[in-house]
Design goal:
mainly alpha; 3 domains; about 80% helix
């Protein structure tokens, strides 16, 4: 029995790792650009509202700004970063995007809480490091991987559309007859 050529296996493994790395790096760079644009929108809308119609309501201004920033990042992710994996059911996709974004916020808040209340680092500098450095890095990694492999994962490409096809296939199995399954589906 011939043994596989080690050089060939090594070359194939390195080639696969290189392809994986390039693919992830491409997504990560696009993700970063979209995130920066969303951040600029968030900060810009917040400051615009603070100096105009919501001067005395910073919390309301920030809430509105986060909504706009999240919509911009969703649109950028949907139509550029993960465009080949966007789904027909855009409302489900948006809902999942919002859930992951809220999860990222919780990661940041958890870092702040641990630093401020558990470890006792109560200075403004410590709060900024725990939130805007450590929390930011962890939340960005959290969002990137959940967006890449859950919201825009290859297995989710068609979203609700794929579920419809599965239901049709199940109906074919039940009825064992395509015409009976389609007649039943048309009668609903």
């Amino acid at each position: 029995m011939p043994t596989p050529d080690r050089g060939t296996l090594r070359d194939r493994a390195l080639g696969a790792l290189t392809t994986l790395w390039v693919s992830l790096l491409r997504y990560a760079l696009k993700f970063g650009v979209v995130g920066i644009v969303g951040y600029v929108v968030d900060v810009g809308v917040f400051n615009l509202l603070r100096v105009t119609v919501m001067g005395d309501n910073p919390i309301g201004a920030k809430a509105v700004a986060v909504v706009f920033g999240t919509l911009v990042t969703w649109l950028g992710s949907r139509y550029w970063t993960f465009r080949e994996n966007r789904r027909d059911n855009y409302l489900l996709e948006l809902l999942e995007f919002i859930v992951v974004s809220a999860g990222g916020l919780l990661v940041v808040l958890l870092c702040l809480w641990v630093s401020h209340y558990v470890l006792g680092f109560r200075t403004l500098l410590a709060d900024n490091i725990s939130t805007n450095v450590i929390g930011f890095v962890l939340a960005t990694a959290f969002r990137f991987f959940l967006f890449r492999f859950w919201v825009y994962g290859h297995h989710r490409r068609d979203g609700l559309h794929a579920r419809t096809h599965k239901a049709e296939a199940a109906a074919l199995v039940l009825f064992e007859d395509e015409s009976a399954a389609s007649r039943d589906a048309d009668s609903d």
